[in-house]
Amino acid sequence: MAASLHEPAGGRGAAPPTHLLYLHGFRSSPRSFKAQRLHAWLAAHRPDLVWCCPQLPPSPAAAMALVDSVLARWPAGRFAVAGSSLGGFYATVAAERHGCPALLLNPAVDPARDLAAQIGEQTAWHDPAERFFFRPEYVDELRALTPPAITRPGRYFAVVAKGDELLDWREMVARYPGAAIRLLEGSDHALSDFDDHLPHLLHFLHLDE
Are 106 and 84 in contact (CB under 8 A)? Predict the structure, then answer.
């Protein structure tokens, strides 16, 4: 997998986080492949790190309230967030609110626009028998949460796939000017080759030292 890495002008501090919050994408769950792979590595190599990957409610406002409640209990300056797709959007909101490092995996840039077409009953990706309703007001909640722009780009590391079949890689790159971006020539929205990129995520957070 060919990839290019755009480094930020200035990096974040060298202290690794002691707590990590992973936020899954739309219709996904804590059973996310990427969440499982990251958690497995941390459990084996960094068992002291506190890991949290909650099931996010369909309401974006409720999801962010859950995120804020988790981070409020953690030591300031010692936690990081990670997120995929819609979870990458939530991770961006969290990074802007709490000033923490963020790992982004094909992050949704304008979910209010993109998910407007998903209003109605939805099935959970990991359990099709589980259903939820994506309500019209959730689009307004997403719009209200959207930061006007990122600040301190050095706190962000994004993996962006040109082969993403759902999101436009150009929009993702443009959303995070100055951030560290691992730009993949192929791959897909799910980052099926996630194991290839895991070392870069860990290195950004200084968890591989």
Answer: yes
Q: How many CB atoms lie within 10 A of CB 104?
A: 28
Region 57-86: mean pLDDT is: 96
The ranges assigned to domains in the chain are 3-204
Grade residue 2 by pLDDT with cuts at 50, 70 and 90: low
CA distances to 10, 73, 129, 170 from 84, in Å = 24, 23, 23, 17
Q: Would you say 180 and 158 are in contact if contact means Cβ atoms under 8 Å apart? A: yes
Q: Model's pTM, two decimal places?
A: 0.91
User: Among 3.40.50.1820, 3.30.1050.10, 3.40.1280.10, 3.90.226.10, what is the CATH number of 3-204?
Assistant: 3.40.50.1820
> Which DSSP symbol is given to 154?
G
> What values do phi and psi take at 104, rounded to 5?
-120, 130
Q: Euclidean distance between the first and final Cα of the chain, in Å? A: 25
Q: Is the pLDDT of residue 87 over 70?
A: yes
Contacts (Cβ under 8 Å, ≥6 apart) of 120: 133, 134
Give CA 190 to chain center in angstroms: 12
Question: What b/e string do you get for 16-46 counting C-beta neighbours within 10 Å, with b at 16 or more?
Answer: bbebbbbbbbbbbbeebebbeebbebbeeeb
Using one digit for the tens of pLDDT, what is the confidence trace for 125-139?
656 667 777 889 999
